[in-house]
Task: structure prediction
Amino acid sequence: MIKLKKRTVNAVRPFVEPLPIPQRLAPSQGILGAPLETRMYSFGQPNLMVLEEKEAYHQFHPDIPPTLMWTYNGTFPGPTIVHRLGQSTCIRRVNNLNPNYTGFGIVKTVLHHHGGWQAPVDDGWPLDYILPGQSRDYLIPNILPVANDRSYWGTTLWYHDHIADHTAGNVYQGLAGMVQQFDAFDSDNENDPSPTALRLPSGQYDVPLAFSDYILNTDGSLFFDQLEDKGQAGNLFVVNGKIQPYFNVAARKYRFRLLVASQGRHYDFHLSNGAPFQVIASDGGLLEAPVTMRRLYMVPGERYDIIIDFSQYPLGTQIAFMDDLLHTDGNKPEGIRVPQPQLLFVVDRNAPDPSRVPQRLTVIPPPDVSKVVATRRIEFDRRNGGWQINRRFWDPTRPLFTARANTTERWNLIVNSGGWHHPFHVHIDSVRILSRNRRPAAVPLHERGRKDVVNVPGGSQAEVLMKIHSYTGRYMLHCHNPAHEDLYMMGWVDVRP
Ligand SMILES: [Cu+2]
Result:
Protein backbone atom coordinates (compact mmCIF):
# COMPACT_ATOMS: atom_id res chain seq x y z
CA MET A 1 0.00 0.00 0.00
CA ILE A 2 0.93 3.65 -0.14
CA LYS A 3 3.39 4.61 2.57
CA LEU A 4 1.72 7.49 4.35
CA LYS A 5 3.47 10.24 6.17
CA LYS A 6 2.56 11.06 9.75
CA ARG A 7 0.27 13.96 9.23
CA THR A 8 -1.59 12.90 6.10
CA VAL A 9 -5.27 12.01 5.80
CA ASN A 10 -5.68 8.25 5.97
CA ALA A 11 -9.27 7.72 4.86
CA VAL A 12 -12.53 9.62 4.76
CA ARG A 13 -16.20 8.65 4.55
CA PRO A 14 -17.07 7.85 0.93
CA PHE A 15 -20.10 9.10 -1.02
CA VAL A 16 -20.73 12.16 1.17
CA GLU A 17 -20.86 14.82 -1.52
CA PRO A 18 -22.41 14.90 -4.98
CA LEU A 19 -20.22 14.75 -8.09
CA PRO A 20 -19.47 18.30 -9.25
CA ILE A 21 -19.78 18.93 -12.99
CA PRO A 22 -17.29 21.55 -14.22
CA GLN A 23 -19.03 24.51 -15.87
CA ARG A 24 -18.70 24.98 -19.60
CA LEU A 25 -16.58 28.03 -20.31
CA ALA A 26 -18.59 30.78 -22.02
CA PRO A 27 -16.93 32.91 -24.74
CA SER A 28 -15.78 36.34 -23.56
CA GLN A 29 -15.81 39.73 -25.20
CA GLY A 30 -12.34 40.93 -25.94
CA ILE A 31 -9.90 42.25 -28.45
CA LEU A 32 -7.52 39.83 -30.11
CA GLY A 33 -3.91 40.88 -30.00
CA ALA A 34 -1.63 41.35 -32.99
CA PRO A 35 0.40 38.12 -32.67
CA LEU A 36 -2.77 36.07 -32.80
CA GLU A 37 -4.27 37.98 -35.72
CA THR A 38 -1.24 37.20 -37.84
CA ARG A 39 -1.92 33.49 -37.55
CA MET A 40 -5.71 33.38 -37.70
CA TYR A 41 -5.87 34.53 -41.32
CA SER A 42 -7.75 31.52 -42.56
CA PHE A 43 -9.74 30.59 -39.51
CA GLY A 44 -12.22 33.46 -39.16
CA GLN A 45 -13.05 35.27 -35.95
CA PRO A 46 -12.29 32.97 -33.04
CA ASN A 47 -14.37 32.58 -29.90
CA LEU A 48 -12.37 34.10 -27.06
CA MET A 49 -12.12 31.85 -24.00
CA VAL A 50 -10.33 33.25 -20.95
CA LEU A 51 -8.50 31.02 -18.48
CA GLU A 52 -7.16 32.82 -15.43
CA GLU A 53 -4.63 30.94 -13.33
CA LYS A 54 -5.10 31.90 -9.71
CA GLU A 55 -4.96 30.55 -6.19
CA ALA A 56 -8.28 29.45 -4.73
CA TYR A 57 -9.44 27.29 -1.86
CA HIS A 58 -10.87 23.94 -2.88
CA GLN A 59 -12.77 21.48 -0.70
CA PHE A 60 -11.93 17.86 -1.51
CA HIS A 61 -14.18 16.52 1.24
CA PRO A 62 -16.22 18.05 4.10
CA ASP A 63 -14.10 16.21 6.71
CA ILE A 64 -10.88 17.82 5.44
CA PRO A 65 -10.10 21.56 5.74
CA PRO A 66 -10.10 23.47 2.43
CA THR A 67 -6.99 23.20 0.28
CA LEU A 68 -5.24 26.16 -1.30
CA MET A 69 -4.67 25.17 -4.92
CA TRP A 70 -3.80 26.65 -8.28
CA THR A 71 -6.88 26.80 -10.44
CA TYR A 72 -8.15 27.92 -13.80
CA ASN A 73 -10.87 30.49 -13.06
CA GLY A 74 -11.12 29.49 -9.40
CA THR A 75 -12.23 25.87 -9.80
CA PHE A 76 -10.57 22.45 -9.75
CA PRO A 77 -10.79 20.97 -12.30
CA GLY A 78 -10.97 24.07 -14.49
CA PRO A 79 -13.99 24.92 -16.63
CA THR A 80 -14.75 22.72 -19.64
CA ILE A 81 -13.86 24.19 -23.03
CA VAL A 82 -16.27 23.30 -25.83
CA HIS A 83 -15.04 23.36 -29.43
CA ARG A 84 -17.33 23.17 -32.46
CA LEU A 85 -15.75 22.04 -35.71
CA GLY A 86 -15.16 25.02 -38.02
CA GLN A 87 -15.31 27.61 -35.24
CA SER A 88 -11.83 28.52 -34.08
CA THR A 89 -11.09 29.28 -30.44
CA CYS A 90 -8.63 31.70 -28.90
CA ILE A 91 -7.67 30.58 -25.42
CA ARG A 92 -6.41 33.64 -23.56
CA ARG A 93 -4.44 32.44 -20.56
CA VAL A 94 -3.73 34.90 -17.80
CA ASN A 95 -1.23 34.02 -15.08
CA ASN A 96 -2.37 35.60 -11.81
CA LEU A 97 -0.56 33.20 -9.53
CA ASN A 98 1.23 34.52 -6.48
CA PRO A 99 4.70 35.74 -7.59
CA ASN A 100 6.02 35.22 -4.04
CA TYR A 101 4.92 31.59 -3.82
CA THR A 102 7.45 29.18 -2.38
CA GLY A 103 6.71 25.48 -2.42
CA PHE A 104 6.49 22.66 -4.92
CA GLY A 105 5.63 23.51 -8.52
CA ILE A 106 6.60 26.78 -10.14
CA VAL A 107 4.56 29.89 -10.99
CA LYS A 108 6.13 30.07 -14.47
CA THR A 109 3.37 28.35 -16.44
CA VAL A 110 2.67 26.85 -19.86
CA LEU A 111 -0.61 25.64 -21.35
CA HIS A 112 -0.85 22.48 -23.42
CA HIS A 113 -4.10 21.80 -25.29
CA HIS A 114 -3.70 18.02 -25.09
CA GLY A 115 -5.01 16.12 -28.10
CA GLY A 116 -5.64 19.16 -30.26
CA TRP A 117 -4.20 19.75 -33.69
CA GLN A 118 -2.56 23.17 -33.45
CA ALA A 119 0.62 24.89 -34.59
CA PRO A 120 3.72 24.51 -32.38
CA VAL A 121 3.47 28.16 -31.27
CA ASP A 122 0.04 27.37 -29.78
CA ASP A 123 0.92 23.92 -28.48
CA GLY A 124 2.63 24.67 -25.19
CA TRP A 125 6.37 24.32 -25.76
CA PRO A 126 7.71 23.73 -22.21
CA LEU A 127 9.88 26.86 -22.25
CA ASP A 128 7.18 29.17 -23.66
CA TYR A 129 6.15 30.14 -20.15
CA ILE A 130 4.52 33.24 -18.81
CA LEU A 131 5.10 34.80 -15.39
CA PRO A 132 2.55 36.10 -12.89
CA GLY A 133 1.02 39.25 -14.35
CA GLN A 134 1.48 38.12 -17.96
CA SER A 135 -0.93 36.60 -20.47
CA ARG A 136 -0.70 34.65 -23.70
CA ASP A 137 -3.12 33.76 -26.49
CA TYR A 138 -3.39 30.31 -28.10
CA LEU A 139 -5.17 29.73 -31.40
CA ILE A 140 -7.01 26.43 -31.66
CA PRO A 141 -8.13 26.32 -35.31
CA ASN A 142 -10.72 23.55 -34.89
CA ILE A 143 -10.35 22.28 -38.43
CA LEU A 144 -9.74 18.72 -39.59
CA PRO A 145 -6.10 17.88 -40.39
CA VAL A 146 -7.35 15.85 -43.35
CA ALA A 147 -10.21 17.50 -45.26
CA ASN A 148 -13.56 15.79 -44.73
CA ASP A 149 -12.09 13.08 -42.50
CA ARG A 150 -14.35 13.52 -39.50
CA SER A 151 -12.75 10.58 -37.67
CA TYR A 152 -10.35 13.20 -36.26
CA TRP A 153 -13.19 14.69 -34.24
CA GLY A 154 -15.91 14.07 -31.69
CA THR A 155 -14.07 13.21 -28.50
CA THR A 156 -12.69 14.46 -25.22
CA LEU A 157 -9.42 16.37 -24.91
CA TRP A 158 -8.01 18.19 -21.94
CA TYR A 159 -5.75 21.10 -21.11
CA HIS A 160 -3.06 21.25 -18.48
CA ASP A 161 0.20 22.90 -17.47
CA HIS A 162 3.35 21.76 -19.31
CA ILE A 163 6.26 23.75 -17.83
CA ALA A 164 9.70 22.17 -18.16
CA ASP A 165 10.83 20.29 -15.03
CA HIS A 166 7.70 21.08 -12.97
CA THR A 167 4.71 19.70 -14.89
CA ALA A 168 4.02 17.12 -12.17
CA GLY A 169 3.84 19.70 -9.40
CA ASN A 170 1.89 22.25 -11.44
CA VAL A 171 -0.76 19.75 -12.59
CA TYR A 172 -1.01 18.38 -9.03
CA GLN A 173 -1.58 21.95 -7.84
CA GLY A 174 -4.76 21.83 -9.94
CA LEU A 175 -3.87 23.20 -13.38
CA ALA A 176 -6.04 20.87 -15.49
CA GLY A 177 -9.42 20.98 -17.20
CA MET A 178 -11.41 19.16 -19.87
CA VAL A 179 -12.33 19.85 -23.49
CA GLN A 180 -15.24 18.57 -25.59
CA GLN A 181 -15.47 18.55 -29.38
CA PHE A 182 -18.72 18.64 -31.33
CA ASP A 183 -19.69 18.76 -35.00
CA ALA A 184 -22.80 18.24 -37.13
CA PHE A 185 -22.74 14.48 -36.38
CA ASP A 186 -21.80 14.41 -32.71
CA SER A 187 -23.88 17.53 -32.26
CA ASP A 188 -24.34 17.98 -28.50
CA ASN A 189 -28.07 17.35 -28.99
CA GLU A 190 -29.73 13.99 -28.40
CA ASN A 191 -32.92 15.42 -29.99
CA ASP A 192 -31.15 16.55 -33.17
CA PRO A 193 -33.66 16.08 -36.03
CA SER A 194 -30.90 15.76 -38.67
CA PRO A 195 -30.93 12.22 -40.10
CA THR A 196 -27.13 12.02 -39.90
CA ALA A 197 -26.89 13.18 -36.27
CA LEU A 198 -25.63 10.51 -33.89
CA ARG A 199 -27.90 11.67 -31.05
CA LEU A 200 -25.57 10.46 -28.30
CA PRO A 201 -26.65 11.36 -24.75
CA SER A 202 -26.29 15.12 -24.33
CA GLY A 203 -26.76 17.97 -21.89
CA GLN A 204 -26.94 16.79 -18.27
CA TYR A 205 -26.46 13.23 -19.59
CA ASP A 206 -23.03 14.00 -21.11
CA VAL A 207 -20.75 14.04 -18.08
CA PRO A 208 -16.99 14.63 -17.85
CA LEU A 209 -15.22 12.51 -15.23
CA ALA A 210 -11.65 13.55 -14.40
CA PHE A 211 -9.91 10.97 -12.20
CA SER A 212 -6.94 11.86 -10.04
CA ASP A 213 -5.43 10.69 -6.78
CA TYR A 214 -4.10 12.84 -3.97
CA ILE A 215 -2.30 12.76 -0.65
CA LEU A 216 -3.51 15.51 1.67
CA ASN A 217 -2.06 16.70 4.94
CA THR A 218 -4.55 16.78 7.82
CA ASP A 219 -4.55 20.60 7.66
CA GLY A 220 -5.90 20.28 4.11
CA SER A 221 -2.70 21.25 2.31
CA LEU A 222 -1.42 19.20 -0.62
CA PHE A 223 1.22 16.59 0.13
CA PHE A 224 3.68 16.24 -2.71
CA ASP A 225 7.22 14.93 -2.81
CA GLN A 226 9.14 16.92 -5.40
CA LEU A 227 11.93 14.32 -5.28
CA GLU A 228 9.68 11.33 -6.03
CA ASP A 229 11.06 10.28 -9.39
CA LYS A 230 8.64 7.40 -9.98
CA GLY A 231 5.45 9.46 -9.92
CA GLN A 232 3.24 9.81 -6.90
CA ALA A 233 0.39 7.39 -6.25
CA GLY A 234 -2.09 8.96 -3.84
CA ASN A 235 -4.36 7.19 -1.36
CA LEU A 236 -7.39 9.45 -1.87
CA PHE A 237 -9.47 8.89 -5.02
CA VAL A 238 -10.75 12.09 -6.55
CA VAL A 239 -13.34 12.53 -9.32
CA ASN A 240 -13.93 16.06 -10.64
CA GLY A 241 -12.20 17.40 -7.53
CA LYS A 242 -14.17 15.47 -4.89
CA ILE A 243 -13.08 12.41 -2.93
CA GLN A 244 -15.33 9.45 -3.83
CA PRO A 245 -18.49 11.45 -4.61
CA TYR A 246 -21.95 10.07 -5.43
CA PHE A 247 -23.88 10.87 -8.57
CA ASN A 248 -27.66 10.63 -8.75
CA VAL A 249 -28.58 9.34 -12.19
CA ALA A 250 -31.82 8.83 -14.09
CA ALA A 251 -32.74 5.35 -15.32
CA ARG A 252 -31.49 5.99 -18.86
CA LYS A 253 -28.27 6.20 -20.96
CA TYR A 254 -25.37 8.50 -20.05
CA ARG A 255 -22.20 9.45 -21.89
CA PHE A 256 -19.27 9.64 -19.50
CA ARG A 257 -16.01 11.22 -20.67
CA LEU A 258 -13.25 9.55 -18.69
CA LEU A 259 -9.92 11.31 -18.23
CA VAL A 260 -7.06 10.00 -16.11
CA ALA A 261 -5.38 13.16 -14.81
CA SER A 262 -3.34 11.22 -12.23
CA GLN A 263 0.41 11.35 -11.77
CA GLY A 264 1.62 7.75 -11.68
CA ARG A 265 -1.57 5.80 -11.05
CA HIS A 266 -3.15 3.50 -13.61
CA TYR A 267 -6.75 2.29 -13.29
CA ASP A 268 -8.67 -0.83 -14.27
CA PHE A 269 -12.20 0.55 -14.28
CA HIS A 270 -15.26 -1.64 -13.90
CA LEU A 271 -18.75 -1.49 -12.45
CA SER A 272 -19.36 -3.07 -9.04
CA ASN A 273 -22.15 -5.27 -10.44
CA GLY A 274 -19.97 -6.49 -13.29
CA ALA A 275 -22.29 -5.01 -15.93
CA PRO A 276 -20.89 -4.16 -19.37
CA PHE A 277 -20.62 -0.65 -20.80
CA GLN A 278 -19.91 0.62 -24.30
CA VAL A 279 -16.74 2.46 -25.27
CA ILE A 280 -17.54 4.97 -28.05
CA ALA A 281 -14.49 7.23 -28.34
CA SER A 282 -10.76 7.21 -27.63
CA ASP A 283 -8.22 10.05 -27.30
CA GLY A 284 -8.34 11.22 -30.91
CA GLY A 285 -11.93 10.73 -32.06
CA LEU A 286 -14.99 8.52 -32.10
CA LEU A 287 -14.50 4.79 -32.57
CA GLU A 288 -16.02 3.27 -35.70
CA ALA A 289 -18.41 1.21 -33.62
CA PRO A 290 -19.14 0.94 -29.91
CA VAL A 291 -17.04 -1.68 -28.11
CA THR A 292 -18.76 -3.52 -25.28
CA MET A 293 -16.42 -4.05 -22.32
CA ARG A 294 -16.59 -4.95 -18.65
CA ARG A 295 -13.14 -3.61 -17.77
CA LEU A 296 -11.27 -0.61 -19.10
CA TYR A 297 -7.57 -0.12 -18.30
CA MET A 298 -6.47 3.52 -18.39
CA VAL A 299 -3.20 5.37 -17.83
CA PRO A 300 -2.33 9.02 -17.16
CA GLY A 301 -3.33 11.31 -20.02
CA GLU A 302 -5.74 8.83 -21.67
CA ARG A 303 -9.39 9.52 -22.42
CA TYR A 304 -12.22 7.19 -23.32
CA ASP A 305 -15.89 8.09 -23.71
CA ILE A 306 -18.24 5.38 -22.49
CA ILE A 307 -22.00 4.82 -22.42
CA ILE A 308 -23.60 3.36 -19.31
CA ASP A 309 -27.27 2.44 -19.56
CA PHE A 310 -29.06 2.63 -16.21
CA SER A 311 -32.52 1.92 -17.69
CA GLN A 312 -32.40 -1.72 -16.63
CA TYR A 313 -32.17 -0.88 -12.93
CA PRO A 314 -34.99 -0.23 -10.45
CA LEU A 315 -34.97 3.12 -8.68
CA GLY A 316 -32.78 3.01 -5.60
CA THR A 317 -30.11 0.83 -7.25
CA GLN A 318 -26.55 1.75 -6.27
CA ILE A 319 -23.62 0.85 -8.53
CA ALA A 320 -20.04 1.87 -7.85
CA PHE A 321 -17.46 2.74 -10.49
CA MET A 322 -14.46 0.77 -9.27
CA ASP A 323 -10.72 0.30 -9.69
CA ASP A 324 -8.66 -2.51 -8.19
CA LEU A 325 -5.04 -1.90 -9.19
CA LEU A 326 -2.45 -1.99 -6.44
CA HIS A 327 0.10 0.84 -6.59
CA THR A 328 2.82 1.70 -4.13
CA ASP A 329 4.45 4.14 -6.53
CA GLY A 330 4.02 5.43 -10.04
CA ASN A 331 6.27 3.00 -11.87
CA LYS A 332 3.56 0.45 -12.56
CA PRO A 333 0.71 -1.34 -10.80
CA GLU A 334 2.01 -4.23 -8.70
CA GLY A 335 -1.10 -6.33 -8.81
CA ILE A 336 -4.72 -6.45 -7.78
CA ARG A 337 -6.22 -5.41 -4.48
CA VAL A 338 -9.65 -5.05 -2.92
CA PRO A 339 -11.67 -2.96 -5.39
CA GLN A 340 -11.91 0.70 -4.44
CA PRO A 341 -15.00 2.71 -5.38
CA GLN A 342 -14.15 5.92 -7.22
CA LEU A 343 -17.72 7.11 -7.59
CA LEU A 344 -21.17 5.82 -6.61
CA PHE A 345 -24.07 5.94 -9.07
CA VAL A 346 -27.49 6.11 -7.42
CA VAL A 347 -30.43 5.53 -9.76
CA ASP A 348 -32.99 7.92 -8.29
CA ARG A 349 -35.47 8.90 -11.00
CA ASN A 350 -36.95 8.12 -14.37
CA ALA A 351 -36.36 10.36 -17.37
CA PRO A 352 -37.16 10.19 -21.08
CA ASP A 353 -34.30 8.93 -23.22
CA PRO A 354 -34.34 10.09 -26.83
CA SER A 355 -30.61 9.34 -27.16
CA ARG A 356 -29.15 6.56 -29.30
CA VAL A 357 -25.88 4.70 -29.63
CA PRO A 358 -25.58 4.02 -33.37
CA GLN A 359 -23.72 0.92 -34.48
CA ARG A 360 -21.73 3.10 -36.90
CA LEU A 361 -20.24 6.14 -35.17
CA THR A 362 -17.72 7.29 -37.76
CA VAL A 363 -15.55 5.96 -40.58
CA ILE A 364 -11.84 5.66 -39.79
CA PRO A 365 -9.66 4.97 -42.83
CA PRO A 366 -7.47 1.91 -42.18
CA PRO A 367 -3.82 2.69 -41.32
CA ASP A 368 -1.94 2.97 -44.62
CA VAL A 369 1.56 1.57 -44.07
CA SER A 370 2.37 1.82 -47.78
CA LYS A 371 2.98 5.56 -47.25
CA VAL A 372 5.63 5.07 -44.55
CA VAL A 373 8.80 7.07 -45.34
CA ALA A 374 10.70 6.37 -42.11
CA THR A 375 10.71 3.70 -39.41
CA ARG A 376 12.11 4.65 -36.01
CA ARG A 377 12.81 3.02 -32.67
CA ILE A 378 11.78 5.12 -29.70
CA GLU A 379 13.16 3.51 -26.56
CA PHE A 380 12.26 4.42 -23.00
CA ASP A 381 14.84 3.56 -20.35
CA ARG A 382 16.15 4.50 -16.96
CA ARG A 383 19.82 5.48 -17.06
CA ASN A 384 22.17 7.72 -15.09
CA GLY A 385 19.59 8.27 -12.38
CA GLY A 386 16.95 9.64 -14.70
CA TRP A 387 14.50 8.74 -17.42
CA GLN A 388 15.68 8.72 -21.03
CA ILE A 389 14.32 8.41 -24.55
CA ASN A 390 16.80 6.90 -27.01
CA ARG A 391 19.54 7.27 -24.40
CA ARG A 392 19.06 10.99 -24.13
CA PHE A 393 17.63 13.33 -21.54
CA TRP A 394 15.28 16.16 -22.52
CA ASP A 395 17.29 18.74 -24.43
CA PRO A 396 15.39 21.75 -25.78
CA THR A 397 18.30 22.61 -28.07
CA ARG A 398 18.48 19.31 -29.96
CA PRO A 399 15.60 17.32 -31.47
CA LEU A 400 15.29 13.56 -31.09
CA PHE A 401 14.96 13.46 -34.86
CA THR A 402 13.79 15.47 -37.85
CA ALA A 403 10.68 14.56 -39.82
CA ARG A 404 8.91 16.00 -42.85
CA ALA A 405 5.47 17.57 -42.89
CA ASN A 406 2.81 15.70 -44.88
CA THR A 407 4.52 12.33 -44.51
CA THR A 408 3.80 9.13 -42.61
CA GLU A 409 6.19 7.37 -40.23
CA ARG A 410 6.18 4.10 -38.31
CA TRP A 411 7.44 4.32 -34.74
CA ASN A 412 8.29 1.34 -32.60
CA LEU A 413 7.82 2.31 -28.94
CA ILE A 414 9.96 0.08 -26.73
CA VAL A 415 10.23 -0.25 -22.96
CA ASN A 416 13.13 -2.59 -22.28
CA SER A 417 12.85 -3.02 -18.53
CA GLY A 418 9.91 -4.77 -16.98
CA GLY A 419 10.19 -2.59 -13.88
CA TRP A 420 8.07 0.30 -15.12
CA HIS A 421 5.36 1.22 -17.59
CA HIS A 422 5.47 4.39 -19.67
CA PRO A 423 2.40 6.08 -21.15
CA PHE A 424 3.76 7.51 -24.41
CA HIS A 425 2.27 10.83 -25.56
CA VAL A 426 2.97 12.74 -28.77
CA HIS A 427 1.87 16.30 -29.53
CA ILE A 428 1.94 16.29 -33.35
CA ASP A 429 -1.39 14.54 -33.73
CA SER A 430 -2.98 11.24 -32.82
CA VAL A 431 -1.48 7.92 -33.92
CA ARG A 432 -2.87 4.51 -34.86
CA ILE A 433 -1.59 1.47 -33.00
CA LEU A 434 -0.45 -1.13 -35.56
CA SER A 435 0.67 -3.90 -33.23
CA ARG A 436 1.60 -4.79 -29.69
CA ASN A 437 4.65 -7.01 -29.29
CA ARG A 438 4.65 -7.33 -33.10
CA ARG A 439 1.18 -8.85 -33.11
CA PRO A 440 -1.48 -6.77 -34.88
CA ALA A 441 -4.14 -9.01 -33.34
CA ALA A 442 -2.95 -8.03 -29.86
CA VAL A 443 -4.33 -4.51 -30.30
CA PRO A 444 -7.73 -4.57 -28.60
CA LEU A 445 -10.73 -3.14 -30.47
CA HIS A 446 -10.99 -0.03 -28.30
CA GLU A 447 -7.34 0.84 -29.11
CA ARG A 448 -7.92 0.74 -32.87
CA GLY A 449 -9.19 4.29 -33.15
CA ARG A 450 -7.12 7.44 -32.88
CA LYS A 451 -4.84 7.63 -29.84
CA ASP A 452 -2.49 10.25 -28.48
CA VAL A 453 -1.52 8.31 -25.36
CA VAL A 454 -0.27 4.76 -25.80
CA ASN A 455 0.60 2.80 -22.70
CA VAL A 456 3.77 0.77 -23.19
CA PRO A 457 4.03 -1.77 -20.36
CA GLY A 458 7.44 -2.78 -19.08
CA GLY A 459 9.22 -5.26 -21.33
CA SER A 460 6.91 -4.67 -24.28
CA GLN A 461 6.68 -2.71 -27.48
CA ALA A 462 3.96 -1.03 -29.50
CA GLU A 463 4.17 -0.05 -33.14
CA VAL A 464 2.31 3.11 -34.12
CA LEU A 465 1.62 4.88 -37.38
CA MET A 466 2.25 8.62 -37.15
CA LYS A 467 0.76 10.74 -39.89
CA ILE A 468 2.41 14.15 -39.78
CA HIS A 469 0.26 16.95 -41.13
CA SER A 470 1.07 20.39 -42.47
CA TYR A 471 2.31 22.36 -39.46
CA THR A 472 6.07 22.67 -39.17
CA GLY A 473 8.17 23.31 -36.10
CA ARG A 474 8.87 21.74 -32.73
CA TYR A 475 6.52 19.11 -31.31
CA MET A 476 7.02 17.24 -28.05
CA LEU A 477 6.91 13.56 -27.37
CA HIS A 478 7.25 12.24 -23.85
CA CYS A 479 6.16 9.88 -21.13
CA HIS A 480 2.88 11.09 -19.61
CA ASN A 481 3.85 10.07 -16.12
CA PRO A 482 4.75 13.68 -15.26
CA ALA A 483 7.47 12.67 -12.78
CA HIS A 484 9.22 10.71 -15.55
CA GLU A 485 8.64 13.59 -17.96
CA ASP A 486 10.11 16.14 -15.54
CA LEU A 487 13.13 13.90 -14.95
CA TYR A 488 13.77 14.20 -18.58
CA MET A 489 11.84 11.46 -20.38
CA MET A 490 10.89 13.99 -23.01
CA GLY A 491 12.10 14.82 -26.47
CA TRP A 492 10.95 16.70 -29.52
CA VAL A 493 10.52 16.22 -33.21
CA ASP A 494 11.65 18.90 -35.60
CA VAL A 495 8.98 18.88 -38.34
CA ARG A 496 10.41 20.46 -41.47
CA PRO A 497 8.62 21.50 -44.68
CU1 LIG B 1 7.27 7.02 -17.83
